């Protein structure tokens, strides 16, 4: 695949690699309990967020040396970083990928996650050449499940108490979309 031409541009967003200057915006998301509630980690300190940022800055391509792309979602109009979107190669042999996303709650319910998610799927299918892309979420995380449905992903599994996270057994939902289905489904009405 090589490195995509950044930024990836949508109607209202730019998706670009993270920069050191994104620390404040990333920490504003990662320090929130409501953002991390259904993730594997809890709210992060500024030091922990800086370490995360150092790990994700180089993730710009899926190729022989990297298995992930991690991009900041930036409002074109203001330049504000409002989200963190990723694609990870799960299997090179089977051309399998996984999508991930975190959106600042102050910008939810405006269609930004759907807009960025569609662009990440486009990147995965059209530029990287994935055959199948999955997305996973805690079964209690209704907004994430609804986002994956809006992206045209079908729910393939509901695993009962399959992970012990933060001291409790959690259910997990798995959604997926095939490359042959990409572009065949009309986008849902509205955002």
Summarize the structure.
The protein is of the alpha+beta class and 191 residues long. It is built from 5 helices and 9 strands; from the N terminus they run ββαααββββαβαββ.
Q: Mind explaining what this structure looks like?
A:
It is a single chain. Helix 1 (23-30) packs across helix 3. The protein starts with 7 loop residues before the first strand and ends in a 13-residue tail after the last strand. The protein is globular and about 40 Å long. The chain has a single domain (8-178), classed as Gcn5-related N-acetyltransferase (GNAT) (Aminopeptidase, 3-Layer(aba) Sandwich). The model has no long low-confidence stretch (mean pLDDT 93). With 191 residues, it is an alpha+beta fold. Helix content is 26%, strand content 37%. Strands 1, 2, 3, 4, 5, 6, 7, 8 and 9 form a nine-stranded mixed β-sheet that branches. The chain has five helices and nine strands.
Whole-number count of domains: 1
The name of the CATH topology is Aminopeptidase
Overall pLDDT level: 93
Poorly predicted runs are none
Beta percentage is 35-45%
Just name the CATH architecture: 3-Layer(aba) Sandwich
Give a quick account of the main beta sheet: strands, pairing sense, barrel closure. 9 strands, mixed
The N- and C-terminal alpha carbons lie at a distance of 29 Å
Mass-distribution shape: globular
Q: Would you state the CATH class?
A: Alpha Beta
**Series of secondary-structure elements, N-terminal to C-terminal:** EEHHHEEEEHEHEE
Radius of gyration: 16 Å
Q: Structural class of the helix and strand makeup?
A: alpha+beta
Number of strands: 9
CATH superfamily: Gcn5-related N-acetyltransferase (GNAT)
Q: What helical percentage do the residues reach?
A: 25-40%
